[in-house]
Write a structure and sequence with these properties.
Chain lengths: 282, 402
């Protein structure tokens, strides 16, 4: 078990004028900080109007106090605390520079999020959970440098909540050799899930992957067919397609495929209204 | 014992089988529909059954819901043109609210209502009708018995059924509840709601139909002070027509509105019928899902409980919420104890009542309990036992024993 700590302000603390930065400083000043391996920053209070820049600054300034920190999560809050699409982030790249030993970074919320420059020699996990990821962030990651990255999990989301790109912005991420150590690729929660599935089905990157995660999006039989017919997909250890819009027939095909695939949480859409939504669009 | 309810439903059946199991004689059943259609009255029923009013008798009012004919009669009884003399005994009492009704239906129009599954027919007039019936039963019982043996007195039921009143009662009893946005009368419409939210810097609220039960008529509403965006999550659906007034109804799946025009329409409908508006305190969550607790209190003691977990802000939605034990959502023994005592204090605030299902949530972070709702008919909990008894058996054991 990692030595982990979560800092967050609840509603009353925020109302009483308490500041998350004070909590970070308190933690840094305590004995715990020297041993801390995982830090989770939850609700920092009014995340719909206050961005994460103060947190980034504080953690950068105090990096010497957290020598063992390997895992960092900025924005771990539920819909009870803030709509994910309303969480204001900032450029979190300075954290990558300040914590060269970090192995895992998770970000929730994409409003005003930037990751520039996206360079880290040791990072193994990069996860961005949001309702819509901007193409600027996608470009930063695909033009960045993460030689040790094993897991890349990106919620792409919908246009309404910040996904202002298209397939062309996603494709650079799946060029082979870009992330030589990558074994888990999640390009999920997308409103163009079919296009992504089709693009990935015969992509060379599949040869190095163990897990492909295309879950929580608007995957239909169209994208699924491409995956099912892909010889490369057969080499995967796990294919995560849960939350999807596939037909019963397609589900039956997957069951017979012999692949280790999660096809749970089938969504139904109204025939008269052709609305299909990814899972996390709130 | 007399049960006033919709006999044949799960509730009445539950009481009867509990009594049979405990070796108690079956309860006499008085149908809401017969009372409302003036086929009988409480007094007439008692005389017809040959019950002696010198002896103590348990009186149980059960939920009037899930029965369209009863609902229609209650809306008719709430009509502005109902004359006390037409109904002989229609009893008005200052103790009972006489809800203001917007766009009231005449008695004749109310009786002509057709059943549409899920439709919200006329909540405020329904409540006025129900309060009139409760007042009548209260008055009759007082004439029949020196001390009527109500499990929950009609007056308390009326108070518990009005979330504005419940909030008031709990607040003055010192029971923790979410902050009120403002007194209900101060918010006539959507525009005022928005400006008060801004003024009070309370940008996340629950607006609840004052007389709804469960998730019915609840809106989780929030505005983003930075972008002006707004989101309303609710079970209220609306169909707009060109040539006739809109129809409001309950939808099975939560709807998420971000379009201001739709939000305005639904909020205004809610406000017109009467709404209770309180701060949305972030609820504690477990495994990524928030939860609240239904804690049953019988005769002053907390007994059966269930945690309802949900991926939506409206945890008490029956259809989509998953039920777990308190243990399964990671509550500590001291948190469970706090919840039990919080629920007991909530019921204590209604001194004429012996049963209620109290909905309690813990705040995210500090994990302090606060009361979301008090349900006079909140004892329909399946497959949950306390000391080996189901809720109805437990109630009978506590209240009907020798």
């Amino acid at each position: 078990m990692m030595i982990e700590k979560k800092l967050s302000l609840d509603y009353e603390q925020y109302e009483n004028g308490e500041k998350i930065v004070d909590l970070i400083e308190q933690l840094a000043g305590g004995e715990e900080s020297a041993k801390l391996e995982s830090l989770i920053i939850g609700d920092w209070g009014g995340a719909y109007e206050n961005d994460s820049s103060e947190i980034v600054e504080a953690l950068v300034r105090l990096n010497g106090k957290f020598p063992q920190l390997r895992k960092l999560f900025i924005g771990d809050m539920s819909y009870e605390e803030c709509e994910v699409s309303w969480i204001n982030q900032s450029n979190v790249a300075p954290l990558l520079i300040a914590y060269p030993e970090l192995t895992s970074l998770t970000i929730k919320g994409s409003t005003e999020l930037a990751l520039e420059p996206a360079i880290h020699e040791k990072l193994e996990e990069l996860i961005i959970i949001c309702g819509g990821l901007g193409k600027q962030v996608l470009a930063s990651i695909s033009s960045g440098r993460f030689p040790k990255l094993k897991k890349l999990e990106l919620y792409l989301g919908v246009e309404e909540y910040g996904f202002d790109g298209g397939l062309e912005d996603v494709l650079p991420l799946i060029e082979q050799e870009k992330f030589p150590q990558l074994t888990y690729l999640g390009l999920k929660d997308s409103e163009i899930q079919d296009e992504i599935a089709i693009a990935l089905a015969e992509a060379p990157i599949l040869d190095q992957l163990e897990t492909l995660d295309l879950s929580m999006g608007t995957l239909t039989d169209k994208g699924a067919e491409a995956l099912l017919n892909s010889s490369k997909a057969r080499g995967l250890k796990f294919l995560d397609l849960h939350y999807h819009y596939m037909s019963d027939e397609m589900i039956a095909k997957w069951k017979q495929s012999g692949l280790n695939v999660d096809i749970s949480d089938q969504q139904k859409y109204d025939d008269d209204e052709d609305y299909r939504y990814p899972s996390l669009t709130e | 014992m007399i049960v006033i309810g919709n006999p044949g439903n799960r509730r009445t059946a539950g009481i009867q089988s509990a009594r049979a199991k405990l070796g108690l004689p079956p309860a006499y059943e008085v149908r809401y529909l017969d009372l409302l259609q003036r086929k009988t009255s409480l007094t007439e029923s008692v005389h017809r059954l040959g019950l002696k009013t010198e002896e103590p008798l348990l009186l149980r009012l059960d939920a009037p819901g899930e029965h369209f004919d009863v609902e229609r009669e209650l809306i008719a009884l709430g009509a502005p043109d109902v004359e006390p003399d037409k109904f002989g005994s229609l009893h008005r009492s200052a103790d009972f609210p006489e809800a203001a009704v917007v766009q009231p239906l005449s008695r004749r129009m109310a009786l002509a209502l057709q059943e549409h599954k899920g439709k919200l027919y006329h909540p405020s007039q329904w409540f006025r009708g129900y309060c009139r019936l409760l007042a009548e039963l209260d008055g009759e019982a007082k004439q029949l018995w020196q001390r009527p043996g109500w499990m929950n007195a009609p007056m308390d039921i009326a108070a518990m059924f009005d979330k504005r009143q419940t909030h008031k009662v709990l607040t003055s009893a010192g029971v923790p509840v979410p902050k009120l946005l403002s007194p209900p009368d101060a918010i006539p419409d959507y525009e005022t709601l928005q400006s008060i939210m801004k003024q009070r810097r309370m940008n996340r609220i629950f607006a609840k139909l004052a007389f709804g039960s469960g998730a019915c008529g609840v809106i989780a509403y929030q505005t983003n002070p930075t972008t002006g965006a707004e989101v309303a999550v609710t079970t209220i659906g609306v169909d707009n027509f060109i040539a006739k007034p809109p129809i409001y109804y309950n939808v099975k799946k939560l709807v998420r509105y971000t379009d201001s025009r739709m939000i305005r329409q639904i909020v205004n409908w809610l406000l017109r019928h009467g709404a209770h508006i309180e701060q949305w305190i972030p609820k504690a969550s477990y495994d990524g899902q928030s939860f609240d607790i239904r804690q049953l209190v019988v005769a002053g003691q907390s007994c059966h409980s269930a945690a309802r977990v949900s991926r939506t802000p409206i945890t008490n939605l029956h259809l989509r919420s998953e039920r777990k034990s308190l243990n399964e959502v990671g509550l500590t023994a001291s948190e469970e104890k706090e919840i039990r005592s919080c629920a007991e204090r909530a019921l204590e605030a209604f001194p004429e009542s012996t049963i209620a299902g109290i909905d309690i949530a813990l705040s995210a972070g500090s994990r302090r309990p606060f009361v979301l709702d008090v349900n006079p008919y909140g004892d329909l909990l399946y497959h949950i036992r306390h000391e080996g008894y189901d809720p109805y058996e437990w109630e009978m054991k506590q209240l009907a024993g020798p």
